[in-house]
Automatic annotation (TrEMBL):
Keyword Transcription: yes
Name of the protein described by the UniProt record: GntR family transcriptional regulator
Entry's Gene Ontology BP terms: negative regulation of DNA-templated transcription
Organism (species): Streptomyces aidingensis
PANTHER family: GNTR-FAMILY TRANSCRIPTIONAL REGULATOR, MANNOSYL-D-GLYCERATE TRANSPORT/METABOLISM SYSTEM REPRESSOR MNGR-RELATED
One Gene Ontology molecular-function label: DNA binding
InterPro entries associated with the record: Bact_HTH_transcr_reg, Chorismate_lyase_/UTRA_dom_sf, Tscrpt_reg_HTH_GntR, UTRA, WH-like_DNA-bd_sf, WH_DNA-bd_sf
Gene3D superfamilies in alphabetical order: Chorismate lyase-like, Winged helix-like DNA-binding domain superfamily/Winged helix DNA-binding domain
Domain named HTH gntR-type: residues: 22-89
Cross-referenced PROSITE patterns: HTH_GNTR (PS50949)
Record key words, sorted: DNA-binding, Transcription, Transcription regulation
Keyword Glycosyltransferase recorded: no
Length: 268
């Protein structure tokens, strides 16, 4: 059995995925070889065809295909046209009240958004308590695709009472920062937030909007925000591509999050 690429260093993290008995599935052995090849090729370089890879590694094409599928799901590879290229590093976003705009710009990329819809409708009971309105009061639903250098990387839905931003549909540029609009146009200062993060699969509609396969794992963040006076402000559902995003935070010695990393990312 092929054993190349298995780390001999006992300090290697989780033995790079190799069980203690050293036996690995054929596809995983190919994946390790592919991982080495990606490092040699570099970001943006095209990957050889499946047939060529199968011959190079002495493996069946289906075995190679399975290894490629995992690398695609992990974000190590990307589809480009009818081919596959080496992907760049994931977007790293702090779990803090840093906006999506600021977080993407810090990594040298150009943030953007594509409006899917902005509509108002009577608030349902469950949402009413979260944004501080009565059942049936008018609420905005703002839905936008998140972009980084024109690549679709996420989808965000924001719910806000119409009374807090009555001219949102006339004043707000959907390609701009929502939090900047709240702060500079309406004088609303953000306070704290409650968040929940989970992994999910995108629905067929979400996958179509983001431009990913339905089977691609997603990072989903539910957020309920309050203003500076502690009053409920918004509810946000942010869906990020698992192959393009990772999140970071800092903890203090007493177990609390450090300053500047208190809550969650936004597409503001």
């Amino acid at each position: 059995m092929w054993s190349g690429g298995i780390p001999q260093d006992g300090n290697a993290p989780v033995r790079a995925g190799v069980p203690e008995h050293g036996r690995v599935p054929k596809y995983y052995a190919v994946k390790i070889r592919l991982d080495e090849l990606l490092a040699e090729l570099g970001e943006g370089e095209p990957l050889p065809a499946e047939r060529e890879l199968a011959e190079r590694f002495g493996a069946a094409r289906e075995t190679v295909r399975q290894a490629l599928r995992e690398l695609l799901l992990e974000g190590r590879l990307r589809r480009r046209g009818r081919g596959t290229v080496v992907a760049g590093p994931k977007l790293v976003h702090p779990l803090s009240l840093v906006s999506y705009t600021e977080g993407v710009r810090r990594q040298g990329l150009r943030p953007g958004r594509r409006l899917i819809g902005l509509e108002r409708y009577p608030c349902p009971p469950r949402l009413a308590a979260e944004i501080g309105v009565a059942r049936g009061d008018a609420v905005w639903h703002l839905e936008r695709v998140l972009l980084a250098d024109d690549e679709r990387v996420g989808l965000e839905s924001t719910y806000l009472a119409v009374a807090r931003a009555p001219r949102l549909d006339r004043e707000f540029d959907p390609d701009s920062s929502f939090y900047t609009y709240l702060r500079h146009k309406l004088g609303i200062v953000l306070g704290d937030t409650d968040e929940r993060l989970e992994t999910v699969l995108a629905t067929p509609r979400e996958a179509l909007l983001i431009g990913t396969p339905p089977a691609l794992p997603m990072l989903l963040i539910h957020r309920a925000s309050r203003d500076g006076a502690g009053r409920p402000l918004e509810r946000v559902r942010s869906l990020y591509r698992g192959d393009r995003f990772s999140f970071t935070t800092r903890m203090t010695g007493d177990g609390r999050r450090g300053a500047g990393a208190a809550r969650g990312p936004s597409a503001g």
